Every structure is written in C-alpha cells, then in structure tokens.
Amino acid sequence: MGELFKKAIKHRKEQTIQLLIKLDCYKSIDNRQLYELTLSELENEYKLLTGRHVSDSI
Predict the structure, then answer these.
(1) Residue 10: exposure state from Cβ atoms within 10 A (0-12, 13-18, ≥19)
(2) What is the pLDDT of residues 16-25, one digit of tens each?
(3) How far apart are alpha carbons 42 and 39 in whole angstroms?
C-alpha cells in the first residue's frame, strides 16, 4: 500500500476518533478502545451515534 494512502487513512481515523470523543464516546459498542478499531468500524460507530456519515462532519 502506498505511503500517501496509509497517511490518508491514518488522518481519517484520527479525525473520526476526535469526532467520537467530542460525542463522549471513548469505547466501541463491543467495549474496545477507539484506537483499536479500523476506519470502517470507527465510521460505523459514528453513524450509529449520529445517524450521519462521517464525511458529512469532516
């Protein structure tokens, strides 16, 4: 996987984690820490909490 792509995913994960923290969400529904989740899992957590896609908020 290219370095630019890895950086983009890492950045998106960090942004999504920050959005979840602002919503007072510090763990996933299955009780894992946010940093342990994949980007898809983080985005699903956000959607469950807000009913919106992450891209609508970033």
Answers:
(1) exposed
(2) 999 999 999 9
(3) 5
